[in-house]
Write a structure and sequence with these properties.
The chain has about 450 residues and is an all-alpha fold. Helix content is about 75%, strand content about 0%. Helix 7 packs antiparallel against helix 8 and helix 9 packs parallel to helix 19. Its main location: membrane.
Length: about 450
């Protein structure tokens, strides 16, 4: 009986999240509450059990980075970079677009894509207004760049954080395996947006001169806080790179960095903490409990059995499983938010590994088996890049569309997918070639 109740809660919750008729945070918390009140998972299991509980490494890593970026945003550095980009591009709208896209991708790789679009979209709207340009080419290019750039590192996109936490992967693991793929994906993406938007972007000369006259250095509001914030951020990123050697979780490094910056910045913590993305954090918390419930009742086990039957993985080779995971993840993440999708896939792949791969006391855990690793990288690539496929595919998409609508530039579902679907297919094809060459030809 618990199996069907948990499955119903899971499916209904996902349906409501996709429909967006009820706020996703409310849905996640209601679903989590039902899982516990109906005793599908006990409160102890939801909060403390290793197999079913909330992944606190994900939650506290996000909290730490949100605090650091919040304080960094108070310095005006993001506005400075926007105007500086305009000047570097000499007011050429196509060059501005490419620079903005590059800044978005880089920031998304080392911060997180949700925070990056929250900070850069208002700046983009400001520049587009000043240049009297349609912001749509900028916004859709930036949101897709945020998801592409965020794919490159452990901290760039929430699905990567979740995968790394489960599989015990390091920052350097992601740089080594994901960054090369994203280099090729992003290179083709730049060429694509040049073809799509290059002839549509024109600006009047007098308007161009007006924005070039803005002194970007006047936009830096707090130079002292900027130096402190960049110093702490640099140390935190170094900590992420070395965390495998230091034997600290990324969440520990992020929280310590956030605490130090709060102290040395002398900012009121009440104001800083109030501005964090608490709805997103509680969405994660509720979602982890819902997924924990369906893991406990065996739904994920049954799905893993189906995956084994379909792709026929073996202890020697999982090529078909890896490619199937890549495309299935991309398609699914375009339909539903990639965060709940990955939360569901992680235990599915884990169960598949335990069913197929040998276990001994003298080797790494089964989920780190060399045969399985391409499947994890496929999940990361598919879920992060697939999030570009629709307005609801990733949290960064939803936030960008909401900010644009508030500014008077609504982005329709249809217009979004006309551009998003072909680009997403392009990125997944490149990823397929990368997985095949990297792990099954060159190796």
């Amino acid at each position: 009986m618990n199996f069907w109740i948990a499955t119903a809660i899971f499916i209904i919750s996902y349906g409501l999240i996709v429909s967006e008729k009820i706020d996703k945070t409310k849905v996640a918390l209601i679903g989590a509450g039902l899982m516990m009140i109906l005793k599908i998972v006990s409160q102890y299991e939801a909060f403390y059990n290793v197999e079913y509980a909330i992944d606190y490494n994900v939650i506290f890593l996000l909290i730490g980075m949100m605090i650091i970026v919040n304080l960094l945003s108070k310095t005006g550095v993001f506005q400075f970079l926007a105007i500086k980009s305009v000047k570097l591009a000499k007011g050429n709208p196509l060059q501005i677009l490419i620079l903005f896209v590059c800044i978005t991708a880089i920031f998304s790789a080392f911060l997180d894509n949700v925070t990056t679009v929250l900070l850069l979209v208002p700046v983009t709207l400001f520049v587009a207004d000043e240049l009297e340009l349609d912001p749509f080419p900028f916004l859709i290019s930036e949101v897709m760049a945020s998801n592409i750039g965020g794919t490159a590192t452990l901290i760039g996109d929430p699905p990567n954080i979740m995968i790394a936490s489960k599989v015990q992967l390091t920052f350097l693991n992601f740089i080594c395996h994901m960054a090369p793929a994203i280099f090729f994906v992003f290179s083709f993406f730049i060429l694509t947006i040049k073809l799509l938007f290059g002839r549509k972007l024109h600006v009047k000369e007098e308007i161009r001169q007006k924005i070039l006259s803005i002194d970007e250095y006047n936009l830096i509001k707090n130079p002292t806080l900027l130096i402190k914030s960049l110093g702490v951020l640099g140390i935190v990123i170094l900590g992420f790179i070395l965390h495998g050697t230091l034997h600290y979780e990324p969440a520990t490094i992020a929280i310590l960095g956030a605490a130090i910056l709060l102290v040395i910045s002398k900012e009121d913590p009440h104001h800083v903490l109030k501005e964090l993305e608490w709805p997103t954090l509680f969405f994660f918390i509720g979602l982890f409990i819902i997924v924990g419930g369906v893991v406990k009742v065996g739904l994920i086990s049954k799905l893993s059995e189906g995956m084994i039957s379909l792709t026929k993985p073996s202890a020697e080779n999982m090529f078909v499983t890896a490619i199937a995971t890549l495309w299935f993840s991309a398609i699914s993440s375009a339909i539903i938010d990639n965060i709940p999708f990955v939360a569901s896939m992680i235990p599915l792949i884990t169960n598949t590994a335990h069913a197929v791969l040998p276990t001994t006391a003298d080797v790494k855990p089964v989920i780190q088996h060399s045969t399985l690793m391409p499947v994890w990288w496929s999940l990361a690539l598919g879920s992060c890049l697939g999030g570009n496929g629709s307005p609801v595919g990733a949290s960064a998409n939803v936030i960008t569309i909401s900010l644009a609508e508030k500014a008077g530039y609504p982005m329709s579902f249809k217009k979004f997918i006309i551009y998003a679907i072909p680009i997403t297919i392009e990125t997944i094809i490149i990823s397929t070639i990368y997985i095949w060459l990297r792990y099954y030809v060159i190796c």
